[in-house]
Amino acid sequence: MPSFAVPTAPRPLLPVSGGGEVPVRRVYCIGRNYAEHAREMGHDPDREPPFFFQKNPENLDTSGIFPYPTHSTDVHHEIELAVVLRSGGQDIAVEAALDHVFGYAIALDMTRRDLQAAMKKAGRPWEVGKAFERSAPVSAIRPAAEIGHPGRGRITLQVNDETRQDGDLAQMIWSVPEMISALSEFFELAAGDVILTGTPAGVGPVQRGDALEGTIEGVGNLSVRVV
Ligand code: MN
């Protein structure tokens, strides 16, 4: 029995549709992986490739409730496909990458856009804009053994029944196998790692009381209330 000098936090768990749970190890996010979103953020996708940042595993939240966070008046929605790994490694070949995928989920990369913009301008890290409490609402995981590996399919976000984001997974600049391979060159990937794969165009602010409904064709949907 280990003798912990302080209390241990429980490892975050994500439910699997059909039963079971995945213990989460790390959360990686990809930035500017859809060309139209890169442009709406003021960047040229032909000159600046996508890149990675991280959230904390504890930021994942399956409650369906998003409490409006502190220190921001411009919190944005970003609907994203989440990839959950069942195994990992380093320098994974693109051709072998999907063998490491356990399943997929629908996630929101909630962002304090005003803080993110201030950090960008100052050349500082993004964590205050991205990695705050409950900043990643997420659905149950659908196993790839059931739904396959969605390389295309409509991805949408509605806010109070108004469509704000409407794209297709096929518009990703880096495909899921390509981003797993690229990520594994920088980090050692492992079972329980979650990758948020970037958002299509149409990001915008949320308000308390908003009902967010995300859908990804072939994966499912995610309902979140902002409080
Ligand atoms: Mn994002």
How does this model look, in words?
It is globular, with a radius of gyration of 17 Å. A hairpin with a 3-residue loop joins strand 17 and strand 18. The chain has one domain: Fumarylacetoacetase-like, C-terminal domain (Fumarylacetoacetate hydrolase, domain 2), CATH 3.90.850.10. It has 227 residues and is of the alpha+beta class. The mean pLDDT is 96. It has five helices and 18 strands. The protein binds manganese (II) ion. Manganese (II) ion binds next to loops.
- The top-level CATH class is Alpha Beta
Mean pLDDT value: 96
Topology-level CATH name: Fumarylacetoacetate hydrolase, domain 2
The total count of strands amounts to: 18
Question: Percentage of helical residues?
Answer: 10-25%
Strand content: 25-35%
CATH superfamily: Fumarylacetoacetase-like, C-terminal domain
Number of domains: 1
Spatial arrangement of strands, main beta sheet: 4-3-15-8-9-12
Low-confidence residue ranges = none
Radius of gyration using CA atoms only: 17 Å
Q: Tell me the major beta sheet.
A: 6 strands, mixed
Please tally the helical runs, counting DSSP H or I stretches of 4 or more residues: 5
Written as H for each helix and E for each strand, in order along the chain, the element string is EEEHEEEEEEEHHEEHEEHEEEE
Bound small molecules, which ones?
manganese (II) ion
Any idea what the CATH architecture is?
Answer: Alpha-Beta Complex
Q: What sort of overall outline do the alpha carbons produce when their principal axes are compared?
A: globular
